[in-house]
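hi! just following up on the protien thing from before. the input was this:
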Amino acid sequence: MQLISLETLPDNAQTMAIPPVWVGDVNIPADEIAREMQYHQADSVEEAQLQAARALVVRELLRQRCDELGWDVEDGEEAALAALLDAELEVPEPAETDCQRYFEANAERFSEPLRLAVRHILLAAAPDDAEARDRQYRLGRTLIAELQSTPERFSELAQRHSACPSKDDGGELGWLTPGQTVAELDRALQRLPEGLHDRPLASRYGWHVVSLDCREGGHAQPYAEAADRVRHTLREQATRRALRHYLLALEARLGVNGVALDDDAAGALMQ
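and the predicted 3d structure came back as:
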């Protein structure tokens, strides 16, 4: 997903995909939709155009509601729309039992981030080269045996044998977080204890002699420490639900033609 640059919009962006858009008796001009498109992430111009149209429909719905209430939005539209939502949205405060239940079901979201300080020696071998993989595996076992008796030689052996650019730093990969290295090695690293691993680890690139020098984080926080974040998460979810229902009710009452708000109507405003 990416933002659609105004400079990359086709000349016919004003007339693509979406018919004339109306909110009540107010038309949203095609050129206004085209200008709005640059602020929306999308895989295509058509999707950006749809998101832009929905965002402008949402703002027009809120402006018309302000007009119904006799509120002047000309001198401060953003403040007026925010005040409208503060006044009319009913967002229940999450109950303590709901917070605790959500935390128990999503404890991994509130864990301290896992960080691993890793050194490795990559012994390269293609996945389909059985002879090379066997040879490099045996070399890996030899290097591990040497390192078990002389661990200070890791940098030297990395410089001599590793096919990874990290060999110039003695095999150091620095601090890794989950997802920063090739998937099969990433999964193995998360389970390893600290120290030199006693056998080579396989990946699509070959075999890795690995030393896990330090492990930090990765532990679930107790509820007492995560309670504020849990409450904020549930309050935000409740706000999105309330805003979605509010906007869909305005759409049904005031009338929208040319585009329809979807189930993520709140996202058009909250982004």
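Confidence is low (pLDDT under 50) at residues 1-15.
The chain has nine helices and ten strands.
cheers
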